[in-house]
Each structure stands twice: as C-alpha cells, then as structure tokens.
C-alpha cells in the first residue's frame, strides 16, 4: 500500500483535529483551535465555523491554514497522524447533499445551521505530511491524497469527476441500506472488525469506502472496549466506486464475504 493511500484511509477514519491559522491579533504567531470536520466526496475537509470566531477572522485575512488530525490518546508520538496544509474557502451552507452528510456525522451541529453567522469552509489540501509511526513518514501532494496517484486501471479521471454523482446519490444509498439491509451492516461489523453490533447505521459512503455507527452488545468486554474507541467503524472497498451501481456491487460482494 502506498503512503498516499494509507494517509487517505487514515484521513477517512477521522473527524476532528487541530486547526491552525495565522493570528490577526498577534501577527506572525499561529493560532490553534479544535475543529470537527467532515470530508466531502473529493476528500477535502469541511468545517462549520462562526464568523465571530477567532479562527474565522484569521482565515478571512489569510486563508492559508493547517489541520492536524490524529488518532488515539495514549502515545501520540507512536500513533499515526496527518498534517494537512492548504487554503480554507467559504462554500454554500445550503448545499443539501453536503449539509445532510455533515449532519449524519455531526448531528449535534444541527442548531448551527439556524444561526446565520455559521458558514461552511472547505480546506483545499495542497500538501500533507503523514506519519504512520516510527520510521514511516513522508509528504504527499493534495492530488495524491485525493486519489490521483492510483494507477489508471484502478481509477480514471472520469471516476474522479464522478465524485459529484456519488455525492448526489449518497443519501438514497444510505436510506436504502439503513431501511432494508441492517442485517448486512451488522454482518460487516462482525466479519471485518470482529465486533458484535446490536444495531448498525450507515452514515456515509464515498469512493473509498463507507462508515457505520454501531451499538455493541453488553457483556462482551473486548467488543465494548473496541466500540468505545471506534463508535464509528470505517470499511474500505477493495476497488474504488463511483456511483450507486458500483456501490451496490461492492456491498453485495462484502455481504457474500461476511456470510457465516
């Protein structure tokens, strides 16, 4: 697996980080703040921030930012982490597909959409520094992180453009899976993650995979511990998808693999 692909899979599994902006109050100094985010279908972080927040004022003066994302809290230096650098630009908060996607992952933010001073910003990634662990690290470009480093037979430029098609179909795919295929989602959790879920709900699906929020059986110590650490499970596809039809084929294949 290439470093860029590993970095992308890691990024897909995270939803919070430390946003650093250039301070306007104290010129020359970086300013860090906590930043929950959701990735859009092109793999760019989307943040929802208030116009009165310090980091927003900084972005309006200088859109160049960095976003540090990491996992785990026991030994941060031994754990994977990813630093993204790029530009944060305001985008349409009323984009229905993006809004629905954001709220599936971060439902606690629902009230922010009724507040006029909260806006969506997309961080357009220019470069990324991925540290997988001791001795395994490197820089990857924003294009590589988005998937352009994959060989042509794996994903074409047309499939990259088709991210918008998948974005428009995402809600329908998720509603179908959650209404009619909960048993399959539970089977995925057991087969691919070794977790016995009592309930599973798909949150999002993208070119590389999908995310499922789980409830876990009580009385099973290992599974309860795993779920407390990863309440949202990430499932990676063997091959990238680009629309509802290719998503169906991938999900059916996983269902066959997960059958006891």
Total helices: the number is: 9
Radius of gyration: 19 Å
Give the overall average pLDDT: 87
Number of strands: 11
Weakly predicted, low-confidence segments: 150-156, 218-229
Instruction: Assign an overall shape.
Output: globular
What does this structure look like?
By secondary structure, the chain is an alpha+beta fold. It folds into two domains: 3-149, Roll (Pnp Oxidase, Chain A); 160-258, Split barrel-like, CATH 3.20.180.10. It has nine helices and eleven strands. The strands form two sheets. Strands 1, 2, 3, 4, 5, 6, 7 and 8 form an eight-stranded antiparallel beta sheet that branches. The two termini are 28 Å apart. The model is unreliable at 150-156 and 218-229 (pLDDT under 50).
How are the secondary structure elements laid out?
Blueprint: H1 3-12, E1 16-22, E2 30-36, E3 38-39, E4 45-50, H2 54-61, E5 64-70, E6 81-91, H3 96-105, E7 118-133, E8 136-141, H4 142-148, H5 157-161, H6 163-180, H7 182-193, E9 197-205, E10 209-216, H8 221-229, E11 232-236, H9 244-258
Antiparallel strand pairs: 1-2, 1-5, 3-4, 4-7, 5-6, 6-7, 7-8, 9-10, 10-11
List keywords for this structure.
Pnp Oxidase, Chain A; 9 helices; Split barrel-like; 260 residues; alpha+beta
Summarize the structure.
With 260 residues, this protein is α+β, with helices and mostly antiparallel strands. Helices cover 36% and strands 32% of the residues. It has two domains: 147 residues, Pnp Oxidase, Chain A; 99 residues, PNP-oxidase-like (Split barrel-like, Alpha-Beta Barrel), CATH 3.20.180.
């Amino acid at each position: 697996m290439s470093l860029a692909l590993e970095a992308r899979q890691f990024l897909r599994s995270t939803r919070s980080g430390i946003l650093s902006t250039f301070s306007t109050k104290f010129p020359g100094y970086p300013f860090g703040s906590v930043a929950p985010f959701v990735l859009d279908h092109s793999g760019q972080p989307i943040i929802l921030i208030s116009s009165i927040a310090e980091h927003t004022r900084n972005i309006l003066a200088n859109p160049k930012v960095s976003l540090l994302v990491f996992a785990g809290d026991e030994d941060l230096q031994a754990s994977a982490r990813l630093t993204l650098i790029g530009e944060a630009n305001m985008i349409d908060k009323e984009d229905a597909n993006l809004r629905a996607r954001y709220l599936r992952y971060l439902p606690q933010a629902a009230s922010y959409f009724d507040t006029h001073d909260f806006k969506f910003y997309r961080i357009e990634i220019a470069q990324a520094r991925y540290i997988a662990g001791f001795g395994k690290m490197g820089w990857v470009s924003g294009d590589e992180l988005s998937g352009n480093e994959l060989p042509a037979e794996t994903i074409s430029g047309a499939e990259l453009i088709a991210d918008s098609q998948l974005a428009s179909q995402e809600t329908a795919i998720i509603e179908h899976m959650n209404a009619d295929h909960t048993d399959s989602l539970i089977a995925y959790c057991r087969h691919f993650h070794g977790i016995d879920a009592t309930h599973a709900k798909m949150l999002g699906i993208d070119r590389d995979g999908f995310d499922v929020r789980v409830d876990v059986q009580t009385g099973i110590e290992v599974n309860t511990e795993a779920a407390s650490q990863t309440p949202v499970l990430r499932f990676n596809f063997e091959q990238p998808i680009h629309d509802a039809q290719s998503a169906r084929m991938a999900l059916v294949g996983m269902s066959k693999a997960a059958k006891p």
